Amino acid sequence: MLKRVAEHTQLIKAEAKRLGFLSCGISQANFLEEEAPRLEKWLNKNMNGEMGYMANYFDKRLDPRLLVDDAKSVISVLLNYYPEQQQETESYKLSKYAYGHDYHHVIKSKLKLLQQFITQEIGEVNGRAFVDSAPVLDKAWAAKSGLGWIGKHSNLLTQKQGSFYFIAELIVDLELEYDHPVTDHCGTCTACLDACPTQAIVEPYVVDGSKCISYLTIELKNEIPSEFQGKMDDWMFGCDVCQDVCPWNRFSKPHNEPLFNPHPELLSMTKKDWEEITEDVFKKVFQKSAVKRTKFSGLKRNIEFLK
């Protein structure tokens, strides 16, 4: 039995690598005891802002067995999105993860292939794929699976690749070998806390979501509060400041996923181009991008606020 569990684990990890995932870690599907009080405290302080969905399915967020019947293992994967080329420096900025195709679709299709592989090679395994859109605490599971540690900016960090990658999971009713968490290597560094334009990192490891530029430019549907005027550092969709200043990200290597390559026009657009963007250009440049979430009207609102 143990031999079979080990074989299954190696098979899955090898296939994840073949599919292009940066790394794959596995943890036992049980209740996230440490995260429960943290999440409750964060919600009670209204740090989720208008993201009401963060308070929904509280139990499911903490226990994968409520998402998949008889779940035994959480298979966590990382997919690199660090771009080879970046935007012009004198332009309104877009978070690097949004340069190419919407990651939800790219990762979901890879996870489905991994799921099919498990069924073909191991047998009838019940499971579900999760990419950032369901009540799953991605970073907590990735850390539990030994893929990295949660940094002071609350993103997952690795010594070899920094933090520019997506996290996704496959929760399955299959017993596997489990990995162990790695140690925290943030030390005394406070680069992310010092650099955050809106002081959203209120203390090490705690981000007030309602002050985060990513929240203000993507999740917030109402007007951006005037208190953030002049503090947005020209970010019109998302924000990478806490990652850009992190010393571990000097080890980031460009991805090799063609679907994450930016639209040819995107990188060369100037502030003037963005200020004059039409709905047709928006549709063309962001046809398959995650930027569609904020819609043309949302992007225009963000640019107007930055002018």
Protein architecture, described:
By secondary structure, this protein is an alpha+beta fold. The chain has one domain. Helix content is 32%, strand content 13%. It has helices at 2-18, 35-44, 58-62, 103-122, 138-144, 191-195, 213-219, 241-244, 271-275, 279-285, 295-306; strands spanning 23-28, 73-80, 93-94, 127-130, 149-150, 156-157, 165-172, 201-203, 206-207, 235-237.
Brief descriptors of the model:
307 residues, metal-binding, iron, iron-sulfur, single chain, Epoxyqueuosine reductase, alpha+beta, 11 helices, four-stranded antiparallel β-sheet, 10 strands, two-stranded parallel ribbon
Total strand count, please? 10
**How many helix segments?**
11
Largest sheet: 4 strands, antiparallel
Q: What's the quaternary structure here?
A: single chain
Elements, N to C (H/E): HEHHEEHEHEEEHEEHEHHHH
Number of domains: 1
Helix content: 25-40%
Subcellular location: Cytoplasm
GO molecular function, one term: epoxyqueuosine reductase activity
Catalytic activity: epoxyqueuosine(34) in tRNA + AH2 = queuosine(34) in tRNA + A + H2O
Domain 4Fe-4S ferredoxin-type: 174-206
Question: What's the layout of helices and strands?
Answer:
Elements: H1 2-18, E1 23-28, H2 35-44, H3 58-62, E2 73-80, E3 93-94, H4 103-122, E4 127-130, H5 138-144, E5 149-150, E6 156-157, E7 165-172, H6 191-195, E8 201-203, E9 206-207, H7 213-219, E10 235-237, H8 241-244, H9 271-275, H10 279-285, H11 295-306
Parallel strand pairs: 3-10
Antiparallel strand pairs: 1-2, 2-7, 4-7, 5-6, 8-9
Helix pairs in contact: 1-4
